[in-house]
TrEMBL record, chain A:
The keyword Transport is annotated on this UniProt entry: yes
Lineage of the species this protein comes from: Bacteria, Bacillati, Chloroflexota, Ktedonobacteria, Ktedonobacterales
Protein name (record): ABC transporter ATP-binding protein
Top-level taxon of origin: Bacteria
Gene3D superfamilies in alphabetical order: P-loop containing nucleotide triphosphate hydrolases (3.40.50.300)
Species: Thermosporothrix sp. COM3
Automatic annotation (TrEMBL), chain B:
Biological source species: Thermosporothrix sp. COM3
Topological category with respect to the lipid bilayer: Multi-pass membrane protein
Cell compartment(s), UniProt: Cell membrane; Membrane
Stretches that traverse the bilayer: 39-58, 70-92, 112-139, 145-167, 179-196, 233-256
Superkingdom assignment: Bacteria
Domain spans labelled ABC transmembrane type-2: 34-258
Protein name: Transport permease protein
Keyword Disulfide bond found: no
Family statement drawn from the similarity comment of this UniProt entry: Belongs to the ABC-2 integral membrane protein family.
Record-level GO cellular component terms: ATP-binding cassette (ABC) transporter complex
Keywords: Cell membrane, Membrane, Transmembrane, Transmembrane helix, Transport
Pfam families, A to Z: ABC2_membrane
Chief location: membrane
Amino acid sequence: MLVYDVQDVVKYYPGQTKAANEHITLQIQEGTIFGILGDNGAGKSTLIRQMVNLLQSTSGSIKLYGHELKNNPQLVPQLVGYMPQRYEALNNLTVDEALYFTAHLRGMTRNDARQERERLLKLWQIEDLRHKYSSRLSGGQQRIVRLAVAAAGRLPVLILDEPTNDLDPLRRKMVWDILRQLNADYGTTIIFITHDAIEAEKIVQRIAILHDGRLLVEGSLSELKQIVGKKMRLELTFTPGLPPTLPEGLTPHEVMPGRWLVMLDWEQVGPVLSALSREHCDDVRLYTATLEDIYLHYVTA
Amino acid sequence: MSQPESSLPRTYKRPSLLTQLFDIFLIELTNWRWSWRGMLITGTIAPLFSLLALSIFARDSGPYSLSYVLVGNIVFSLLFNTMDNISSHVLFMRRLGMLDYFGTLPIWRPILIFAILLAFLLLALPSLVVMIVLGSLILNLPLHISPLVVLVVPLCAVPLAGIGAIIGSRIRLPQEASAISIVLIFLLSALGPVVIPPERLPSLFNLLGRLSPATYASSALRQVLLGPITGQLAIDIGVLIGFSLILTLIASRLIAWKEQ
């Protein structure tokens, strides 16, 4: 079943001559983990604010389960848990209160809302924060609380604006694990935006890449890899300061001191590896193209 | 290719209006956690000082003028505690994303406005009680409190709160909202017989005062706190109900739930 059907959506902010997004068309199937990838200012947050009906589109249509959003303002509150990039709406509340009130206002009975609060505190590993005010938490803790609040009431769709920003690697892993679990256990459709392709690759099933307000491409990870071609990613580590010794015609990029990246066609792999001098090369890693490569391919094309 | 309308996944039923009102009222009451110092200063101490200063000038002018000083400063306290605080609160709700939070919950939106008004009215009550008790002691005015005070106090607060919500829903910067709110507080107090008896005001001020909810609030409060109750109270209550409905409706329409 189609959850979101976005058709030819355009947004001009008042007084602006440049569109924040232009002719965006995409469809999101039920139960998908859908990543919206793009650099800063690509129009990602604008698009999802339109998708949660908090921002009016200049033109185009957005349907949720086949129902036009602008004619059905109660659809998003009934079906979508939304986590904005930043907000301080719950600053006066303790974590306990924020979870309970959100679950209760989403229609759970008092008892169910209390149970939901306990479940969320445990699931998101924030039991020790339960009596603290949201405003007193660190940036990372606040983000986890907001994720838990968005997930309160187990709505069928979750829309998350940069869910792992401000988080340390352990918490980032926890967030992706929980989101995967929600998707697997309840079939929750998860739509998230990020500018971090490496992070997105850990969880995403389908991806849309936005750049400068336009949708460059949309598809599954394997489809996009096929579009990019069967490129291989060769990472080489040389002693810092020494230039890489590679066959002619290749253009390596130094990603950090001593570490070089070369994109190769499949047929180039054998000759390049044979030509490498093992004396000067400290480490060799060969991968298929990553989401980051796909992203860079489209954005820099 | 677009899809025809399909059946929606089963979710929870939207909570009843009473549940929505109660929950949001409790959420809004938590504003006490940050605002109590401000409310204490602007809602009690500032009007008390104003009352003390005015009482020095009005002491010899008799109980009639003193009744205006007392009730006028109670209205002054209500203006600070409801209009000023609500204008700041609604503006901060817009800026901090609280409207996004409530906008994605299955609630009837005017309920949010009612809950804010109720919460700030309750938060204003302690200051109001302090003002009434201390004011009557300082000015040596005996209180004759009518049970109608239970109806009149909320009716005095709601229109002022509605003006605050309108300011907060339209103005972009807190400094601008605060400046407009302060100017309005003084205008509403000065235009019309709020702090000063009508006989001592220019006739233009008395005329303009008829358009101000503060005038009717002052008149109604004076009757239910100090007596005697006259036929004017029915007019005051009627006008305050009208102001309450109109200003609350305007406020809930003006709040930008959806960014343009």
